[in-house]
Amino acid sequence: MVRIPLTASVALATPGGRNRNRLRPASHGVADFRLRSPGGPQSRCHRPAPCPVLAGGDDGFHFAPDAEPVELSWHLLDTTGRARAGKLELFTRHRKAPLWSRDLSPEELLQGEHHWRWDGRVPVSEAFPDGVVTVEHSPYKLKLTLQGSGLAQAPVAWTYFHVLVAGVELELGDPQVLARQQNRELTQAMKQLPAPGEKAELRLVGNVFKTKPLEMFDDTDFQLHRKHWGSGPELPLFARAWVKDSRGNRVDAPKALGRVRFLWDWEDETEAIEHHAPAARAFLKHALNRHCATSQPQGDNAHRDVGGKRGAPSSTVFPRQAGYAPRDTPRDGVFPFRVTPCNKRGWAAYSQAWTTGAFAGRTGVVFQPSSIAGDAWRVTVQLAYDRRKDGGVVLDVEDAAPLPAAVRASTGVFQSWREVHLSRLMRKDAGVSGFSLSTVQDCFERAYLRLEDRTGGVSGWSARDYNARIAQAVAASRHWELRAAIDPAVDQFTANSEAITFRGYPEFLDEVAHVKRCADADLPRWLAPTRERRRSLLTARDYHRQCKDWAKELLTQALDSALGEAPGIALFQFSGLYNLETSVDGIRVNGFASEFPSRKRDRCAVIQCAAEGNYRGTHNTLEQTLAHEIGHQLFLPHAPFPEHRKIGGALALRHDRDGKDCLMGYDFTSERRFCGLCLLRLRGWNTHALNHDGARNARP
Predict the structure, then answer these.
(1) DSSP characters for 15-33?
(2) 0.85 cut: is pTM over it?
(3) 437-445 and 622-633 helices cross at what angle (nearest 10)?
(4) Could you read off the pLDDT of 345-358 as tens digits, one per residue?
(5) Vertex 500: Cα angle to 494 and 501 (nearest 5)
């Protein structure tokens, strides 16, 4: 025990007297010390042993600095004025040095009750950049220490308080903080975030089509889709944070947030594939489970080796942002909040809030999911204030979500979809068969692709316009035989319901003899195969087949300027391609998707020309023809089915080996749907990383 030397002066008694001196050592100390909310709760006072424990108060006392004043009260015992100095000090966990201190004035050292109205304001410092105590360093220990002479009874007392976040609310941020216009438009189209239990579509508009046949066999589609959307679409996700006052109410106290960090996390939503046909379902199962056991976080979103983001670091989903200092007018096209990757939780990121300015009380990230259609994401923000002794954030771990955060908010599910537009629908006459657009759309919805009708309804040509287009295309043809096959006196618009009307074979021969000024005996010389025309025209059968190719050539030339100015797919409908297709060896054509001369990357056309009766006796339909031809314009080649019938341009390696019902094949014995490999290609996968044998795509 420490010996404390004490001295005192006493009065002597007279001889024989009975005087008595009562000696009491001079002392000082803290009788009580706590924070109080006027008319509300209070903190608990702590003093060192063996001082008796004071009743009342709570170690969980909290208030909202800068928004709610509280009262700091202390009661001193010092009858002889022995306390020479006193100091208030503010501490946080895992740190010995005080964050802030304040010396008491002489008046505040006098015996009795003292009260100090305090709203959490402290001098501006590194710990408190806005001059108020914040959530960042909570919980706090506020300590009162006295210094003086004489006996010190409880020279120290302390109390605890907290600055707490009452909750966070997620909201869709201002699109003006994004740099690219397409991301601003995507944000505006979203309007609001999906609530928990809801699902929202991220519509990635991409009217991008093939311009040459070889692009159906390489990865041009994947490269163009990735080029158009970069590392993925961007959405500004904001979180508004509220502070809890002493009575438990949430209040707006942005300065009290300080530099506390918020951790942004995402989870994968498992995809349902039960609605697919058996072969496609089996193929998708292997592809979606690719590297599921080894990637973090686990899930079945597209892996990074096929163009997705599962298995990629956090900076690709929540990109790093420099942010900038708070201001009343945000900078256009610049994201305001600072965002940095987590250390251990590599797929998550931290953000900090603005404490002043236009976005005071808010924080946020740029959410950048993959551009792969079908991928689904749930985003969670949680307060990441709690730290370990080594300074690391408690939530920064590789554990599976959800994390044990006291304050958190989650969105519903974001699901990426591609969107392609139908820009125009034109029919030669009212007798052309209509079709069920919803049935066509359903074929593509299985690949998370929305085929949006932007046509405004059916439109048609005038006879004058149509005839002028065909005449111009005929005149521009480099084939003199084609020009001979068309009678310029025939009204192409009214002559037949078919798109093109050719001369009959006898009339064609007469025109050739007239054009070449030759006798009938010389016709074989002019109608024999050539380098450009490999088919002979020496028989009516050959002529009827050749007219099919000429009709397609004329239409693509004549209708090129009819694609319009709006991006998307134009649909041109006729009742028959040409008037000789039912003649001997003529060829009936249901539709085609040739490249048009202008080769515009954002515009294309599908020509549907099935005559009445073309679909009798099979499972083929007009709707399947349209979906098949649109598939071509979206880079899908023919499938090699049925196997006994070789199809031009078919490539087995670009289709599911077991997908004999693929819509891009010609097997009409059953209903056709896109095979598993086609579905993934339409979704934006880099399918060159996959095998057409679905079982070989499985990865641990």
Answers:
(1) TT----------EEEEEEE
(2) yes
(3) 50
(4) 999 999 999 999 99
(5) 70
